[in-house]
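In this section we walk through a basic example: taking a raw amino acid sequence and producing a predicted 3D structure, encoded as discrete structure tokens. The instruction is simple. Fold the sequence below.
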Amino acid sequence: MPGIASGLYNALFRRNVVFLTTVFAGAFAFEIGFDTGLTKIWDWNNKGVRFPAPSSHLRARN
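The resulting token sequence is shown next.
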């Protein structure tokens, strides 16, 4: 375990710019995955319940 921790420290956390890049890239990837996952859950949970978008209804009337 100390070898893994030492390698992780030397690869990602030793230099500040690499650490910040890792944090921002991880946060960005997590946000995309979290948003995609919750959107799929939301759509699955509300299947058949939601109304169509109002803009498509208004365009059909004109």
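Looking at the output, two observations stand out. The two ends are 68 Å apart (CA to CA). The helical segments are 2-13, 16-45, 54-61. In the next section we compare this with other chains.
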